[in-house]
Specification:
The chain has one domain: MetI-like fold (Orthogonal Bundle). The protein has 13 helices and no strands. Helix 2 packs across helix 13 and helix 10 packs antiparallel against helix 13. It is flat.
Length: 307
């Protein structure tokens, strides 16, 4: 009986492996093509448009202007304010969401009567449409008929009543509060699920060694939550920095640019000012800043996950 040469067997095995992989790539190719078409093409098109003076008034004609749009943007005080507000909102919202989410998760994980009801309704604020959330906050802060001002008048603090979203001092704070109101329960549920996966033996051993509640949280709970915390931070850095709805629907960036952020600024330049090339330059800068923030967060995640 003649034996099949080893090289021939290797060739057949290699061909079979390539065939299986090729079939997998063939199945993935249509989805990959759609993803690239919906993401890569607009990104490249936006970058190329940022080097032109293209306008929505006459979109068929444009001239190459190089870095002129970028220099103009960096000199624009409103753009500088918008960038600062975006960074402030992202940092403040994400940090407070983590802290409040941990507190809420600790409360939801307690074994007390009725806790299952509170766990069930905890996510209501997150599943509500953003427009519904904004409308509720707008109604609550109406100058004459809003719940907040009526309550202040009833307790004798009428001098504090005001048009909250129309006040330069408080408008940005209200936008931040709306982010927290919507997202903290989502953080809490994610953290609660991770807490439930921590072995109870660790806490039992810590109690035997005399560790109190705070030391148990610091040395057991927090280290076991670090990965989910950093994943949530990366996701919500992206969501918050890109968020357009809360600001546009509540204040439109006002009053007097007090709540202007990059998404609303870029929107106004494109659709109110018709300066598509200029707005695209703002979008490219926003993309660069966001990619930098995500890379920094990913570096922290990689470093901690390898510990």
């Amino acid at each position: 009986m003649s034996s099949v040469p080893r090289s021939a067997k290797s060739s057949v095995t290699l061909w079979q492996n390539l065939s299986r992989k090729g079939f997998g790539y063939a199945i993935l190719f249509p989805a990959l093509l759609v993803i690239l078409g919906l993401n890569l093409y607009p990104t490249i098109s936006g970058i190329l448009t940022s080097f032109t003076n293209q306008s929505l008034i006459d979109p068929g004609h444009s001239l190459f202007v190089g870095l002129e749009n970028y220099f103009k943007l960096l000199r624009d005080p409103v753009f500088q304010i918008s960038l600062l507000h975006s960074l402030q909102l992202t940092f403040s919202a994400v940090v407070l969401q983590v802290i409040l989410g941990l507190v809420m998760a600790h409360l939801l994980i307690q074994k007390v009567p009725g806790i299952h009801f509170f766990r069930s309704v905890a996510m209501i604020t997150w599943v509500l449409p953003i427009i519904a959330s904004v409308v509720m906050f707008r109604f609550m802060t109406l100058p004459s008929y809003g719940f907040v001002n009526i309550l202040l008048k009833d307790v004798g603090l009428e001098r504090l009543a005001r048009n909250w979203f129309g006040d330069e001092t408080f408008a940005f704070l209200l936008v931040l509060i709306m982010h927290l109101w919507r997202n903290v329960p989502f953080y809490a549920v994610a953290f609660m699920a991770a807490m439930q996966a921590i072995s109870s033996d660790l806490y039992e051993a810590a109690r035997i060694d005399g560790a109190g509640e705070w030391r148990q949280f610091w040395f057991i709970t927090l280290p076991n939550l670090r990965y989910i915390i950093l994943v949530m931070v990366v996701l919500h850095v992206t969501f918050t920095f890109n968020n357009f709805d809360f600001v546009f629907l509540s204040t439109g960036g006002g009053p007097v640019n007090a709540t202007e952020v990059l998404p609303t600024y870029i929107y106004k330049q494109a659709w109110n000012g018709y300066a598509l090339g200029y707005a695209s330059a703002g979008g490219v800068i926003m993309l660069v800043v966001l990619v930098f923030l995500v890379l920094v967060c990913n570096k922290f995640i990689k470093g901690l996950s390898e510990q």
